[in-house]
Each structure stands twice: as C-alpha cells, then as structure tokens.
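Operator note (shift B, R.M.): manual run for IS200/IS605-like element IS609 family transposase requested after the automated queue skipped it. Running by hand, logging everything below so the morning shift can see what happened. Input copied straight from the record, untouched. If output looks odd, do not overwrite the archive copy; leave it for review.
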Amino acid sequence: MIYSLHAHVVFTPKYRRKVFTDEILRRCEDIMIEVCDSFDATLVEFNGEHDHAHLLAHHPPKAALSTLVNSLKGVSARLLRKEFPVHLRRYLWGGHFWSPSYFAASCGGAPLSIIKEYIENQKRPG
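Run finished. Output pasted below as returned.
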C-alpha cells in the first residue's frame, strides 16, 4: 500500500494555561513519538510554546486521525500529570490537561493542480 497522509495538529491545554516548560515539552514530544509508533505513524515534527503544542504526523490510512489524536491527548495527559504533578497542579485542576478541542489540517503532497494533471494524463484501460 502506498500512501502519504500528513496532518498538522495543534493542541492547547485546558483554559489555554501556560503550562509548558522546555522540560515538559521535551517529555511531551517523547510521549507523542511513542504513541505514534504504536499506530504505525511517525511524528515528523513537534514544537510548542507555553500554551500550545504543534505536531506534524505522517499516519497510515488504517489509523483514523481522530483515534490517533484521542490517544495522543489521553496518554500524554496521564503521563505528564503523573510526572510533573507539582508544576501542573498550579495551572490545571479537575483532572483535565488538554482542551477538548484541537486543530487539524491535512498537508503535504503535491498541489491539487498537479494531482489533477497527473490524473488527466493517466492511460485509460482498453
């Protein structure tokens, strides 16, 4: 199977609190890499600021983006709360880490005009 599915995803902590330190972002990236691996996906890029995180993930068609996102958010929230309890308790309460929403955009590949031209130039069977 050949595929090229890339998604740019942005997560924000609950209430858009400024919870991320460099150390927490590094650990979050490590967690996201492990979760992506479990989905046969690849975390191509990861970065963030104090109040949000950006991911670029390459994922197979069998991994629904919403399922991947739910796992990324769930596993990272659980582990980060466990590993940085004192710091995170100052910013977040009620058992939440991430905002329930997220931004996702498909990206990568050729421009639509190139794909359209490619399809138009394919040899018809028969």
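Quick read of the result: The domain at 6-120 is CATH 3.30.70.1290 (Alpha-Beta Plaits). The first strand starts at residue 6 and ends at 11.
Leaving this for review. - R.M.
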